[in-house]
TrEMBL record:
Residues 4-120 form the Response regulatory domain. One of its GO terms (biological process) is phosphorelay signal transduction system. This is Stage 0 sporulation protein A homolog. The lineage of its organism: Bacteria, Bacillati, Bacillota, Clostridia, Peptostreptococcales. It holds the Pfam family Response_reg. The modification 4-aspartylphosphate is found at residue 55. The keyword Phosphoprotein applies.
């Protein structure tokens, strides 16, 4: 497990120390940093890091206020507060508002590593629980009969989610983006759909961003949407490759290994997992989306 980190502190040297600790002890990947609360809010909403290390006292917006606001957005992010403030009342307030742990300044390497590892264990446990939940959900989605009665998947959204469930990415942040993107394509005339997929996939990202803004009143940006989608597709590639390693005759591996991915890239990912290659497989958003739409067409 290699969680993503975002660091918020107005002291550049503190940010550098924390980044060095995370890198040196292989605790995860730092995907962003900020020195003030306003910028941090926007970045965290878009990047959706798994762990945020945040100073209590910040210019623009203090750490507790940021955590409160982000918690309301249900980003599934874990927050570690960093501060010189030792007031029991303030620390208690931080925990009450959603902070997972509290690190005292000056920074102590042992304390930082210990606390981050505790949060990583919590994330690992959440992932295990989530895997069970997804497995149970998949059983319900994929089960054709319940009590002798056939289940009817009536909407296009349900059919897309069924495929994402089979790929093991229904719970990923980018899965909702993938669903909405395919729904947008299905709404287009065939010639427009072909143009978006073959020439203007960047335009499709922009259309999805516009839908979020106008229909759902969600503020995001094209880069964040593309990043979430690529992460979800990468996870699907890893899942398919692992299935192939465990059982080359696995039905899901056979079904999707050459339709939503280039099979050469699936083999590259399998070699990477086995330790035979330093590089994993590459993904194509276009092929992935086209593959899902083809599967939907074949099942209709």
């Amino acid at each position: 497990m290699n969680p993503s980190f975002y660091i918020v502190d107005d002291d550049k040297s503190i940010r550098k120390v924390l980044k060095n600790i995370i890198d040196q002890y292989n605790l995860g990947d730092v995907i962003g940093e900020a020195e003030d609360g306003i910028r941090a809010m926007e970045d965290i909403k878009n990047l959706r890091p798994q762990i945020v290390l945040i100073d209590l006292l910040l210019p623009g917006m203090d750490g507790i206020a940021i955590v409160c606001a982000l918690k309301d957005m249900d980003l599934h992010t874990n927050y570690i507060m960093i501060s010189q403030v030792t007031s029991k009342e303030m620390v208690s307030k931080a925990y009450t508002k959603g902070v997972e742990f509290y690190i005292n300044k000056p920074i102590n390497v042992v304390e930082v590593v210990s606390i981050i590892n505790k949060v990583k264990e919590k994330l690992k446990m959440k992932e295990v629980i989530h895997s069970f939940e997804k497995a149970i959900h998949s059983m319900h989605v994929l089960k054709e009969y319940t009590g002798g009665r056939e289940m009817n998947v009536t909407t296009e959204k349900d059919r897309i989610k069924k495929i994402l469930s089979q790929l093991g990415i229904l719970g990923e942040a980018g899965s909702n983006d993938i669903v909405e993107m395919i729904l947008i394509l299905l709404e287009q005339k065939e010639e427009v759909r072909g143009r978006l997929l073959n020439q203007k996939i960047s335009e499709l990202f922009a259309m999805l961003n516009q839908r979020y803004r106008e229909d759902y009143e969600i503020t995001t940006n094209v880069a964040a949407i593309e990043q979430r989608i690529r992460r979800a597709i990468n996870k699907a590639l890893k899942n398919i490759a692992n299935l192939g390693i465990e059982d080359y005759g696995n039905d899901t591996f056979i079904k999707y290994g050459n339709t939503i991915f280039d099979f050469k890239e699936v083999r590259n990912q399998m070699d990477h997992i086995r330790g035979k290659s330093n590089y994993g497989g590459k993904i194509s958003v276009r092929k992935f989306i086209e593959g899902i739409m083809m599967e939907m067409k074949n099942e209709s």
